[in-house]
Amino acid sequence: MSSSLDDFLEKESTLAETNAVAIKRVVAWQIQQKIEHEHLSKTKMAQLMKTSRSGLDRLLDPNNTSVTLHTLDNAAKALGKKLKLELI
């Protein structure tokens, strides 16, 4: 069952974009927490993720939703997690 907010966002054609931004903000927050908790530099975190420093910066930007699955998978591995996607 959807909420009235979901219904409103769907009607305004912004539900998918809103969901993408929300998910991205959580991912960016989790990565930022890993960096802070382990006292990692952005350069070291980028190395753990097998990406560039600018790639990490894009991932940490909560409003940039254009991130590849490859980058998300590498971020998950750097966090000691697995990436799980599902269509529901």
What would you say about this model in short?
With 88 residues, the chain is mainly alpha-helical. The protein is built from 5 helices and no strands. The chain has one domain (4-78): Orthogonal Bundle (434 Repressor (Amino-terminal Domain)), CATH 1.10.260.
Walk me through what this model shows.
The structure is a single chain. With 88 residues, this protein is mainly α. The protein has one domain (4-78): 434 Repressor (Amino-terminal Domain) (Orthogonal Bundle). 65% of the residues lie in helices and 0% in strands. The chain has helices at residues 4-11, 15-37, 42-49, 53-60, 69-78. The radius of gyration is 15 Å and the shape is elongated. The two termini are 13 Å apart. One of its GO terms (molecular function) is DNA binding. This is XRE family transcriptional regulator. It comes from Marinomonas arctica.
> Helical region count?
5
Per the principal axes of the C-alpha atoms, what is the gross shape? elongated
Tally of structural domains: 1
Number of strands: 0
- Amino-to-carboxy terminus distance: 13 Å
Chain oligomer state: single chain
CATH fold description? 434 Repressor (Amino-terminal Domain)
Helix proportion range: 55-70%
Radius of gyration over all CA atoms, rounded: 15 Å
Q: Estimate the mean pLDDT confidence.
A: 84
The secondary-structure class comes to: mainly alpha
Give the CATH level 1 class.
Mainly Alpha
**Uncertain residue ranges:** none
Q: Give the CATH architecture.
A: Orthogonal Bundle
Order of helices and strands: HHHHH
Largest β-sheet summary: none
The proportion of strand residues reads under 5%
